[in-house]
Amino acid sequence: VELYKHNRLATIPDQIIQGDADEAIVSLLKEEQMSAEYYYLSNLDNLPCPDYSDVDWEKYCAPKKVYITGSRGCVRRCTFCDVKYIWPKYKYRPGKQIAEEMIKLYTKHGKAIDFKFDHLSNSYFEFTDSLINGSLKAFKELCVEMKKVNLKLKEQNKKIIWGAQFICRSAKQMPEDVWAIMADAGCKYISIGIESGSEQVRNHMLKKFTNEDMYYTFDMATKH
Predict the structure, then answer these.
(1) CA 146/CA 87 separation, integer angstroms
(2) Residue 115 to residue 161: CA distance in whole angstroms
(3) pTM assigned to the model
(4) If I label 69, which of 30, 134, 145, 164 is the partner at 20 to 30 A Cα–Cα?
(5) Which tens digit of pLDDT belongs to each residue from 122-142?
(6) How many CB atoms lie within 10 A of CB 38?
């Protein structure tokens, strides 16, 4: 939306919401004037569960994805990244609350979406977060709750699976038992921004993980 302010040829929108529009859009629908400042939510806990009841999933090709937001912002401040400017403060939801939303959506739409993770149908939950393991407390709570659910679903030969962006953490921060729970919880895909194989370059970028952390992460992801 920044481009509209500088492009004289563009059709200028009546109003622009910058930042978190989740609550501001309600004000817009009430025909209230939007602020020129960025909107930031004080917390993410009060956001309603998405409603996909009017979506015809047959019109969507694989991979079919249901998106989940567990956090906004990032715990790292990498020199090349703009996330720290979009969301200056890292905010996250409790892991149990995220799990409850996933279970609710799976129960309501699971049959239509057909949650599988194979070469035939890559349907799954995908997190919009910059990183899923920013708050280790919330992440572990999410994994513990989803493991419980998947143990019950296993009896029906079913499983809720999900994927997310992820940061390398040390063995001390994420011991192997956490990786094992991740697998049982249905985490089948993680996307990691390594950026460089040089620890010196990564330090300059403020990535804040060592080669030891990186190889540990690779080993654990491969194993589990």
Answers:
(1) 28
(2) 7
(3) 0.86
(4) 30
(5) 568 999 999 999 999 999 999
(6) 14
Q: Which residue bears the tokens 């996330």?
A: 83
Q: Residues of 84-116 as b/e, b for ≥16 C-beta within 10 angstroms? A: bebbeebbbbbbebbbebbbebbeebbeebebb
- What phi and psi values does residue 34 have, to the nearest 5 degrees? -85, 145
Residue type present at position 1: V
Give me the pLDDT at residue 116, please.
61
Angle at 143 (CA atoms; ends 219, 52), nearest 5 degrees = 120
Cα 169 to Cα 94: distance, rounded to the nearest angstrom: 20
**Structure confidence by residue, pLDDT tens digits, 46-57:** 888 888 888 888
Query: Tokens 């990498």 — which residue?
Result: 78
Tokens read off for 152: 């019950």
